[in-house]
Amino acid sequence: MHPAVNEIRQGLAAVADADKAGPMAAYLKTDMPFYGVQTPQRRRIVKAALMAHPVASRSQYRDVVASLWELPHREEKYCAISIATRFQEYVTPGSMPLYKKMIVEGAWWDLVDGLASDAVGSVLLRHRAKTTVTMRRWVDGPDMWLRRTAILSQLRHRDQTDAAMLFDFCLRRAYEKEFFIRKAIGWALREYAKTDGDAVYDYCDRNGDQLSGLSLREATKHR
């Protein structure tokens, strides 16, 4: 195991706060244990560990991310996601099986959305032809969190967004009653509206009878 993993784990344990751990778990409606370490402190722990023990290869990257992900506390999984998205040189199609595993196992918005936009989305942006095939498979697949990921995968693409794919994905899932899908549709459209509001609002007007009220409200929030 890469030494950064133990340093991060020990660093989190050293500043654990039981008074914060309970409310953090309650907010996310999870039984997964928390250390009670908030984001700024967690980031400092990760930064110090990586400075002391650099991640110097693709195999080390996957080892650190996978090892942290398998640890029991929520913050350890947050650290895994942070490192997964930090080293963009290793965010490649070869890492997609690891991201898929994390998304399926994470199965909640706080463990999925960062991977969707900053890991899967980065792979899609740089390797669009190959990764588009995967996104089309995910958006029609049985796992709700992979469907959400496919919808959110272009969240940071701005003027490089494949608008036709985004609009297609939203309509493909528009019939779903699942809150996290409806919310993702609205969020993805709202973000793209910052780049091309006319296209998004025209799309919403033309497809308002198919999109849910939640999706439409989210998409047109800044209209």
Description:
With 223 residues, the protein is an all-alpha fold. It folds into two domains: 1-90, Alpha Horseshoe (Leucine-rich Repeat Variant), CATH 1.25.10; 100-223, Alpha Horseshoe (Leucine-rich Repeat Variant). The protein is 71% helix and 0% strand. The chain contains twelve helices and no strands. The protein has helices at residues 3-14, 18-27, 39-52, 58-70, 74-86, 96-106, 109-126, 128-139, 144-152, 163-173, 179-206, 213-219. The radius of gyration is 18 Å and the shape is globular. The relative contact order is 0.08.
Short description:
The protein has 12 helices and no strands. It is mostly helical and 223 residues long.
Please describe the structure with a list of short key phrases separated by commas or semicolons.
single chain, 223 residues, mainly alpha, Leucine-rich Repeat Variant, 71% helix
Low-confidence stretches: none
Helix content: over 70%
What's the CATH class of the largest domain, please?
Mainly Alpha
Q: Roughly how many Å apart are the termini?
A: 50 Å
**How many helices?**
12
Class from helix and strand fractions:
mainly alpha
How much of the sequence lies in strands comes to under 5%
The total domain count is 2
CATH topology of the largest domain: Leucine-rich Repeat Variant
Q: What's the main sheet like?
A: none
Radius of gyration: 18 Å
Please state the average pLDDT score.
98
Q: Sketch the topology as an H/E string, one letter per element.
A: HHHHHHHHHHHH
Q: What is the overall silhouette?
A: globular
| Number of DSSP E strands | 0
CATH architecture identity of the largest domain: Alpha Horseshoe
